[in-house]
Structures are given as structure tokens and as C-alpha cells.
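Researcher: We're teaching a course module on how sequence relates to structure. For the next exercise, students receive a sequence and then see the predicted structure as C-alpha cells, so they can try to spot secondary structure elements on their own. Here is the exercise chain.
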Amino acid sequence: MKALSLLLLTLFGGSVFSLAQNPIIKDQGVSDPHVRVFNDTVYLFSGHDSNPDDKTWVMPNWQVFSTTDLVNWKREAIISPTDNYMENNSTDCWASDAATRNGKYYFYFSDRKRGIGVMQAEHPAGPYIDALGKPLVAPMHDPTIFADNDRNNTSFLIYGDKEGGGYRIAKLNENMIELAEEPKTIEIIGKEWDEAPEWMDKNYLFKHQGIYYLSWGRDYAISENIYGPYRCEGAVGEGHNLSEFAHGSFFWWKGQFYHIWCYYIRPGFKYRETIISYCHFNTEGKVITDTRFLDKHKEYGVGRYNASWQKIEAEWFYEKASEMKKQESDEEGFEMLTTTSNGWLLFANVDFSERVNTFKARVSGNVAKGEIEVRLNSLSGPLLGKITISDKNTYETVSCSIPEVSGKQNVYLKFVGQPNSQVKLDWFSFSE
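Model: And here is the predicted structure for the students to work with:
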């Protein structure tokens, strides 16, 4: 069995898919995407739809991709059902997830709806070996592993579907391959769950500012207790195939929050692609998938930018200083706020193919003397220009001249001012 996995990895593993785009890894049947960040690397654990012409689910294995910049994705491994208790020729490799604990890595997989198994490895990309030789739980499918931020970093398994009695949750033992308790049914209150199709599965769970967020398809619910009950909050976003069929996950990377999900490319055919966008929380803590970004720049993807764009919204940053805060704007959308003299934002891989000589920004300040410096490639890199921020505490658009720039550059916006001052940035742009 292992020989077949090695053959698959030899034939298909190690592929590098460059240039961020949506779909992020095109023509590879990437479905049911669950993202985990291990050791400063983003890992994508996905299903593998076999063929665009399949009219039923043909999923012969799982795929593992990695990236350190959200632009270049490398296929690290193909996990085959021949390496676990499933039938050797199975095409029932449904949704999966991964976790780490005590220096080891764990891969949880669906055998269609028959059950959920677990494999373990010494590295996020494997090789993974079957930890039990049988299901961890049965029946049901679609595992999510959630590690709480309590004293013990307690891990939980969430799985199931509406038709099977609803989602279930159970605490995992320290070894991550046994349940520490009997699974409990999660109560979800609200019309979004009441009106969800009977087959609804696709769960994902994360936590933000002490609140648990449980998502499925397009919708989500929240609770102050991991076991529930959960109260429906509505949709995580509108448009761009955020529908009842969207199976996705959420993750943090360099201070930014992302939503990644899959969709069927043709009605009636069981072949999916996966897209990604920035994600935000509004003042009330509601999840907002940035479909405005997708409306304008879907195919370009996240983690890179073009200097010719009419606007680059501040909340689309690639990396930020810990002092920087993303918040809902009084004007529209979201803004970035800093109240110290150490704030900065990084916009990586900005394409300066077209000639520009002006930097412009929409800013608001409450500072005796403040500036935003535009620097290349580091916080102490070449200074392109700087704008002065007034103390009016109202938004205004300011600009400065910059020298000619070419190629792809990392652009740092460095906020300089008195401590305890306040500066807000809505958007910026380059122009000729």
C-alpha cells in the first residue's frame, strides 16, 4: 500500500503552483479546504475531485499543499486510502482536517459517511500512518479539529450533518486518537439552521475574542460555550459562490484573517475549485468575508497587489505591526488604526509594471505632527516619499510625489508620530 502512495507522490507531489489567483490552485480539483498554520507555514488539507466531467463524487485521495507567502503553493503530499483502513480502490475520500500536539501531527479523514479515521506523522506533510486501523467515530463525516486557548489547549472533534441528528462535539484525549468523552449534539437556534438542507454538513469552528463561531455552507452561529447552544447570525458573506454548497475554513496569517472555500464549477457535476479572500469582523463581531475585494480583484488573489489599481484598501494588508488594529470605518467598509508611533503595514509583491509618480492616501489623524512614510522592502528601506497627517481628526486625501519604481516590490507604510496619537488609514493608491 505504501508503494502506491510513494508512486503518487513521485508522479504528482512536489508540484509548485505560482502566482496567487482564484481559484488558488487551478485544475487540481481542490475541495473541502481546511487550512492550518504549522511552524510559520500555511498548510492546506483538501479533498481531490477527480475529473470535471464526474457526475458523482469521485475522490480517490487527499492533497496537502503548503505556502509561505499565499502566492506560491507547493503540493507536499498525496495521502492515499491505501495507507489507512479504507478499501484500496476507494474513491470515498471525503473532507478532512489536521492538527498538531506534542510535536506530532494528526490527519482526520472521512470515509464517505461511514466514519472518521485518524492518521499521524512526524511532519505536517507526512508520511501519515493509520493510528487506529479503524474509525475514531462512526458513522458520520466532515471532521473539524479545534484547539481551545484554555490552560490545557484542549482539543475537540466536531463532525456530522443535519440529517444525522446535527453536529456533534467531543473532547479528544491528550494522544489525539481517542475521545475523552461521549459525543454531544450541538444545539443551533435560528432560521439559517432551520432552513438549511437536511444533508447540511461542512462544519468549521473557530474562536474570536472569547466567542465560538460555528460555520456551515454560507451561514454561521455563535456561542459563549463551545458546547452551545449556538445562535444563528446569518451569512459569512454574499456572492462569489458563498452558498449552501460552500465548504470552507478560516485562518489567521501575519495578523490578517482569511476565508477559504470551494464551489462547484458546473451545475450537475461534482468537481470543485477553491478561492480565498480577506475576512473581517465588524463592530458587533459579525463575520464579513470581503467580497468587495473579489468583485474587483478575484482572479488576482490575495497576498499580492498592482500599483495600477484605483484603490488598495488598507484592510487588504499582507502583514501588520501588532499595534495596528483593523476596525469598521465610519465612512465605508474597514480601516486600519494605530495609536502608537510604531505602526506599520506591509503590502507584499506590489507590481509596478505601469509608470507611477504619485502616492495618495485617505487618512485621518489626531496628532500634533504625524507622517506616513512609504518605504521599499523593509521598514528601513529606500524612502519613496511621505505624507503629512493633520490633527483635524477627519478624513482627507493627501498625496506626495515619488520617484519611478519598477518591478515587484514589497511596500511598507510606516506611521511616524507622537506616542498616543491616533492615525487612521482608509486606502491608498499610486498614479502617474
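Model: If you want an answer key for the exercise: Confidence is low (pLDDT under 50) at residues 1-12. DSSP finds three helices and 34 strands in the chain.
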